[in-house]
Amino acid sequence: MQAHEIDYHIYGEEMQYVEIELDPQEIVVAEAGSFMMMDNGIKMEAIFGDGSQQQSGLFDKLLSAGKRVLTGESLFMTAYINQNYGKSKVSFAAPYPGKIVAIDLTQYGGKFICQKDSFLCAAKGVAIGIEFSRKLGRGLFGGEGFIMQKIEGDGMAFVHSGGTLAKKELAAGEVLKVDTGCIVGFTKDVDYDIEFIGGIKNSIFGGEGLFYATLRGPGTVYIQSLPFSRLADRIIASAPKAGGSGREEGSLLGGLGRMIDGDNRF
User: Fold this and answer.
1) Cβ within 8 Å of residue 221, ≥6 positions away
2) What one-character DSSP code corresponds to residue 5?
3) What whole-number distance in Å separates Cα of residue 93 and Cα of residue 160?
4) Which residue from 126, 165, 205, 249 puts its CA 20 to 30 A from 110's CA?
5) How many CB atoms lie within 10 A of CB 100?
6) pTM for this one?
């Protein structure tokens, strides 16, 4: 596998986008809906699967696309081909506030494992597949962490995270306990499992779920402070209910708050 060599620059702080510089005939593939802008002369083309099997037979293409369906992604990705005689640029934006992480697969032994919805884009030739868990506990209780994506190859790939990003370098045998939704990704040598938090009070009143993930080194782990699922839950919980009543509208504090911020609608 020989991925295209691409140059890049990441812009922004909390709402980031990555700008990819392509040489003539170089290609970058991206998830549908991540496109932001591009120079004239770059051609967009929908491809079946991740593009790494474009020269293979129909069965290999169907297998590649089928893996993407299992992770909840579209059957198709979009390839961006530089048809100019000089360098051209195309940019892709993160879907929610957070950080974009550049993953050089050559530095991680050709494989990186990430949450199924964190992949943003990659150089042509990088394969995006699924990483099934071999342990029953992960499958039953892992939630978002059960079926994860694996990114394989020798090129650059880009994943995005929510909130603030933490990078942890784990020594051999070192263990990190993490909320399952807060995992962005980790290198192939990290051992991943699910553990029960334990304790009746923790289970009933803790509010953090019944299980957390344990990551055992050696390897590199990326952790996000604000998973999109957590952000969405907070927005839904605070949204006005049917009839125009929000979660705090029946309280004195809610009324004062609306007076202060100018929201005096009835």
Assistant:
1) 167, 168, 170, 176, 178, 183, 185, 186, 187, 190, 215
2) P
3) 9
4) 165
5) 22
6) 0.78
